[in-house]
Amino acid sequence: MRAVPSSPDTLLEGHRPGRVPRAVRSEQLLGVADRLFAERSFHGASMDELARRAGVSKPVIYDHFGSKEQLFATCVRRTGEALAEQVRTAVRKESEPRARLRAGSIAYFRFLAEQMQAWAVLFDAQEGGDARFAAEAARIRHRQSELMIDLMAESAGTEAGHEGRAMLEAMTLAIAGAYESLSLWWREHPEVPPEQLADWILDLLWPGLEGLMTQLAASR
Amino acid sequence: MRAVPSSPDTLLEGHRPGRVPRAVRSEQLLGVADRLFAERSFHGASMDELARRAGVSKPVIYDHFGSKEQLFATCVRRTGEALAEQVRTAVRKESEPRARLRAGSIAYFRFLAEQMQAWAVLFDAQEGGDARFAAEAARIRHRQSELMIDLMAESAGTEAGHEGRAMLEAMTLAIAGAYESLSLWWREHPEVPPEQLADWILDLLWPGLEGLMTQLAASR
DNA sequence: CACGGTAACCTACCATAAGTAGCCTACTGA
DNA sequence: TCAGTAGGCTACTTATGGTAGGTTACCGTG
Question: Do domains A22-66 and A75-218 have the same CATH topology?
Fold first, then answer.
């Protein structure tokens, strides 16, 4: 075999076929992996296919990412960060707590709608099955909700002490879980607009959230 | 080889070693599988080890359950049903909506506390990784929350129509997701008592929930 | 302008674990 | 007594994550 390294999946400018600088290769591999995981989900994606699609041999991938799980974790983390960034930006455009939460929620669902692909990577992970990225998934969820709460608190000036700390963390995660599940439901009902989803979940969460915040502010 | 089938994991009365009626073997296998999945999580558990522990050969397991995933799904479903039963019973002991939700929540967390093992089976699934039991997990989550809402509605006499239907379903799932995430958090903070968890999440969800219910009742 | 060192890659292989084909054997009822 | 069958077993195949060890293009230096 070993014919001309026939144009791989993604054409990188410059470095014709083979031989590409490490950073570039990494990026390319992550891109291909993102797509692959998105369409086949973690378990269904094989490293052999990934290698084939990337026009590269398996050891190259292992040299870059160590293991399938690490590669997956990296993909998830990147997507999670992009999502967080979107939300953060949207939230910062508003000043009133409820408006901020609403804006953040809409941004969140919009991101999912645009990046169904990335979305799949993010959530099939937890659904998907192995308990292996629990850590990664949890971290994302954690950061996501912490972000929203923090951003809300920005305007409320709350900073809970002792006991309230645990509660805040727990509630934060619970909320993130609610968003996650709702996102899953949305997959089967894509006709519902993001704003609608946001309004629903705000109606559900906001009253209690407001109560918790004033309660925290009082006991500080 | 083929020595005396040396006492397997679980001694079944009657049928000494080998040869056991189908139903009994099924039950025994499910028991061993429950424990195995609980300690090793789906991916980490191998069918070879399961067979070894059960004192049986692999094809027997496949004859009973078809595949590792089906076996796992069965375990999850059973546990989910047990959980639902606990919750249902607890909820029925109260009559006021809020009290019912609280009782259900406490029962939910108590179940998890007592059955950490079963719990692991239920939730590592989603975390765990493969997107393969998504269906099963979703179904459980769905039923779980539907149950709680239905039981609450029992006393409120609400039965939404058209549009509200979708919202109710979505919110129902969101709530289940919140409980799930909270349960995950609880694993790292077992010192918090179930009642405390219940109160926290009630403070978070109840106000909005009440609002949604009256809103539905009005638009009916 | 050789030329040694290293970064980027590859071929071939191993190990594990899911799942299967085909045979054997203890019990049951006629 | 003796089929017929439910309950089991051994021994394989296949798929796939992961690795050992060698090969070639590139680049800075004497």
Answer: no
Q: Which CATH class is domain B22-68?
A: mainly alpha
What CATH number belongs to B76-218? 1.10.357
What's the Å distance between residue A154 CA and nucleotide C6 C1'?
Answer: 51
What single letter denotes the amino acid at residue B188? E
The Cα-based distances of B165 to A182, B161, B168, B171, B220 in angstroms read: 15, 6, 5, 10, 11
Widest CA span of chain A, in angstroms? 73
Distance from A14 to chain B by nearest Cα, in Å?
38
Query: Looking at strand D, which nucleotides approach a protein CB closer than 7 A?
Result: 6-11, 15-21, 25-26
Q: What is the DSSP letter of A131?
A: G
Burial annotation B132-160 (CB, 10 A radius, 16+ → b, else e): bbbebbbebbbbbbbbbbebbbeeeebeb
Name every chain A residue with its beta carbon within 8 A of the beta carbon of B126.
Answer: 126-129
Count Cβ–Cβ pairs < 8 Å, chain A vs chain B. Answer: 172
Asked if B156 and B117 touch (Cβ cutoff 8 Å), the reply is no
**A-chain residues within 8 Å CB-CB of B109?**
none
Most A CBs within 10 A among B39, B127, B188, hence the mutation to make, goes to: B127
According to DSSP, the residues that pair with A90 across neighbouring strands are none
In chain B, where the domains are located: 22-68, 76-218
> Which of A175, A181, A203 has the CB atom closest to B212's CB atom?
A203
Of B166, B174, B186, the CB nearest to A201: B174
User: What does the pLDDT look like over A118-133, one tens digit per residue?
Assistant: 676 666 655 445 555 6
Backbone angles phi, psi at A129, to 5 degrees: 140, -60
Asked whether the beta carbons of B90 and B106 are under 8 A apart, the reply is: yes
Q: What is the chain B residue with the closest CA to A43?
A: B130
* CATH number of this structure's domain A75-218: 1.10.357
Note the CATH architecture for domain A22-66.
Orthogonal Bundle (1.10)
Distance from CA of A20 to the nearest CA of B (A): 32
Going residue by residue through chain B (220 aa), what tens digit of pLDDT does each one get? 333 343 444 443 444 467 899 999 999 999 999 999 888 888 889 999 999 999 999 999 999 999 999 999 899 889 888 888 999 999 999 988 899 999 999 999 999 998 876 666 666 655 445 555 666 666 777 777 777 767 766 655 556 566 777 898 899 889 998 998 898 889 889 999 999 999 999 999 999 999 988 887 777 5
